[in-house]
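Chapter review: from sequence to fold.
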Amino acid sequence: MIDNSIFNNKKVAYHTLGCKLNFSETSAIGKQLSNEGFSKVRAGEQADVCIINTCSVTDTADHKCRQAIKRLHRQHPDAKMVIIGCYAQLKPEEIAAIEGVDLVLGANEKFSILEYLLKLDGTQKGEIHRSAIKTVREFKPSCSRDDRTRYFLKVQDGCDYYCTYCTIPFARGRSRNATIEATLDTAIEAINDGAKEIVLSGVNIGDFGKSTGESFFDLVKGLDNLPYDVRFRISSIEPNLLTDEIIQYISTSHRFMPHFHIPLQAGTNEVLQIMRRKYDRELFAHKVSFIKQLMPDAFIGVDVIVGVRGETDELFEQSCQFIDSLDISQLHVFTYSERAGTKMLEIEHTVDLAERKHRSDVLHALSDKKTKAFYENQRGKTTPVLWESRHNGEFMVGFSANYVKAERPYDKSVVNTLQTVTLGEWNEERTALKIG
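The token string follows.
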């Protein structure tokens, strides 16, 4: 047990970049520090410790991390700067060389942050503690609440896929998870804390169960059978792991929402093979078709990467045609970024940066068309909406079961409550539907 008197009245500032998994982990670390005497810094106060949880999915992400480190060091010049997250695991020396950084912790060390803070003596800057990623086997469950209403439950970490463009397996290690029983306990804690909606998050959540001999479908059924009034959503799940059995089950569930986020990444089999994805576009099209057959109003978000090596003009055009043919609701478009150590760098054909941006613009326009068509189809329908706390003064927003953003006049009393409404006309910005 750590002597928490050392940390009494100490102030800590947090800054998290990247995915919802990072936010869940920052929340778990925050609870550790709070239990040992730390309090979160308030506006205008000077922090004793700054913890920055980093992302490294692209070069742009790395750049944002460096900017955040420098900015927090300027704001809290006397604070101990502790850097964790994917960037810290992948490039610790690069981070340690940044002015003001005291401590860099890898994936296996970040949850022991208190122990490393105790050992800091202030005489040496840029200490690095990072284990080889192949040795990382422990799973730390966590759950965080965002600045809206929903909670994000970390159910899985790591990835065994090693796609040619991706560094995540090198930053987070092998696929691993807690038991279903332990995961349900964490969900119940969130529900007791007031959660009305929980999003299952992870790196490759469909792989849940590899380390415990269970399955993701078993987890879905376990959560669905909890005796609480709560909504669940599944975050990004690989199409080859989203089984027809799971889709069928969700179509009749009262707790799992008709909302899917499925990474496609490329709309041609040639590029999917270059990426070493574990499915073809025919399987992906089947998943979309099967979802819509059982749940016609389901929201389907799709990840796509543009400009990877080997994606010729012709292949990109074929990809656009395929994506346009799918009955989906939204695209999340990512521009390819070369990452050191990935197999994608062995592909000779490259796409210049201007063309990558053009392709991104094309798919963003297609996404806008798909989303507006989906929303138009939802107008006039009656559905429960969970209202969020965020508002612009006059209006507040919430989301329907199938993830349509609704807008109504602000009323503090309905925050984090479900209200059955009729979806009406577009708001002025055409970002949400007004309630009827």
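Two observations follow directly from the output. The first strand starts at residue 11 and ends at 16. Residues 142-377 form a domain with the pyruvate-formate lyase- activating enzyme fold (CATH 3.80.30.20).
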